[in-house]
Hints:
- By secondary structure, the chain is mainly alpha-helical.
- It has helices at residues 5-8, 24-54, 62-88, 101-104, 110-117.
- α2 (24-54) runs antiparallel to α3 (62-88).
Amino acid sequence: MAISAQSRDLEIPAASPEAGGSPLGTILGAVASEVADLASTADALQQLVGALLADPLAMIDSQAVEQGQALDAIVQRLQALETFLAALAPAMNPGWAVDPRKAADMLLLASLAQRLSGTAVETVAPDTGSCDFF
């Protein structure tokens, strides 16, 4: 994971729950919830992009403008999540270990699964009978 210039110099001390820290599962759950919301918002934008690709000269209504503005919000939230995770990573105790392979095996994007797990993983695409191009 690349560490941005914003978060590179941040030092977050390791903290126990008693010292105001949060369980790692709680933090990861919150990040997963944010990412799920971002994915849902980005998915909704596909409809706008598809319409603009089909007819680039079409008049854009106010709803389309609002959806387009959502793209900026997605980018800002993704940048903030990157900063948060990059700053949080050094605070993890080096003795803590997690095997990410089982979680990576659930991913449909093999290259992402490999990057997250550090190993080659087998992914199986569900047989949905449909194909997304975006």
